[in-house]
Design goal:
- This protein is an alpha+beta fold.
- It has 2 domains: 26-139, Macroglobulin (MG2) domain (Immunoglobulin-like, Sandwich), CATH 2.60.40; 147-268.
- The chain contains 4 helices and 12 strands, in the order H-E-E-E-E-E-E-E-E-E-E-H-E-E-H-H.
- Strands 1, 3, 5, 6, 9 and 10 form a 6-stranded mixed sheet that branches. Strands 2-4-8-7 form a 4-stranded antiparallel sheet, with no helix packed on it.
- Strand 9 and strand 10 (129-139) form a beta hairpin.
- The longest helix has 44 residues, at 225-268.
- The radius of gyration is 30 Å and the shape is rod-shaped.
């Protein structure tokens, strides 16, 4: 129990530490009074394997007004994988232009794994140019690590582990079979054993929750894909087994209840069950 609590507290501290060092910086635009100003849509996190559309609005830096349709401007959108190689991941130089707004299509193969990315939007006219730059993360949840979320996940994991351990303790306190004498004859039917059986179902549910939480925390917070895939695969596998296990559980419970009622009737008629549980 103590080792489990220490492990949870260590995970809580690690999540808060990662939160502090992994905050995404805000978007940057080119300075200056002459040229083009590009305004992009800022975000700190996106979901992996998701098709997206990048939007950029282009203005005159001198007066802040949108560029006119008569001004010929070419724009290019680039994505760089910062975490893994830093190399160019994707480029689109044929956006759809509507007035001063440029739309860049991004297929779902670009952000295909958890990583930190930098996007640069570069626009040029015959005389001036400008750029927009921002850094963000991509993960399975599409959310950035923040202090409230880090605390929430840590508390949730802590409570799940705590309930898991307490549930095991309570299960061990409850009777597993009917009360018998030294000769193995039935003295009393222990109905609490059915509550014990139901706690096993609760324990299984907590086990699935822990697999899901650990898998998502590893993917979304620590970018550990192999570690995450293992736990999420185990979660899906055991999740598929849950339905038939529940059916078997109810069949087992109804069979035991019928057996206990038969033993109760036999005991009432002076027939002591020596083999019943």
């Amino acid at each position: 129990m103590v080792k489990g609590l220490r492990l949870v507290l260590s995970l809580f501290a690690l999540i808060l530490f990662v939160n502090i060092i992994s905050a995404a910086p805000p978007g940057q635009i080119n300075p200056g009074t002459n040229g083009l100003s590009i305004a992009g849509v800022d975000f700190s996190a996106i979901k992996t394997v998701t098709a997206r559309t990048a939007v950029a609005n282009v203005y005159n830096s001198s007066d802040g007004l949108p560029i006119p349709n008569s001004l010929a401007v070419t724009c290019q959108f680039q994505v760089f994988d910062v975490t893994n190689t830093g190399a160019l991941q994707f480029s689109n130089s044929t956006p759809l232009r509507i007035n001063n707004t440029f739309y860049f299509g991004i297929p779902n193969t670009v952000y295909n794994h958890s990583s930190e990315y930098t996007r640069i939007i570069q626009c040029n006219s015959s005389l001036y140019g400008g750029f927009y730059k921002s850094t963000f993360i991509a993960d399975a949840s599409g959310t950035e690590i923040t202090t409230p979320k880090a605390i929430l996940y840590s508390v949730f994991i802590f409570m799940t582990v705590l309930f898991f351990l307490l549930n095991i303790f309570v299960i061990n306190l409850l009777p597993a079979m009917n009360t018998k004498d030294q000769q193995g004859r039935l003295i009393q039917i222990s109905w609490l054993k059915y509550f014990r059986y139901s706690l096993f179902v609760f324990e299984w549910t907590l086990f699935l929750i822990m697999l899901y939480l650990v898998g998502n925390v590893a993917e979304g917070y620590f970018n550990e894909r192999l570690f995450s895939n293992f736990f999420l695969t185990m979660f899906r596998l055991f999740g598929y087994l849950t339905a038939p296990m529940i059916i078997l559980f109810f069949v087992f419970i109804f069979a035991k209840i019928a057996e206990d009622f038969k033993l109760k009737n036999d005991t009432a008629h002076g027939m002591f069950g020596g083999d019943g549980i």
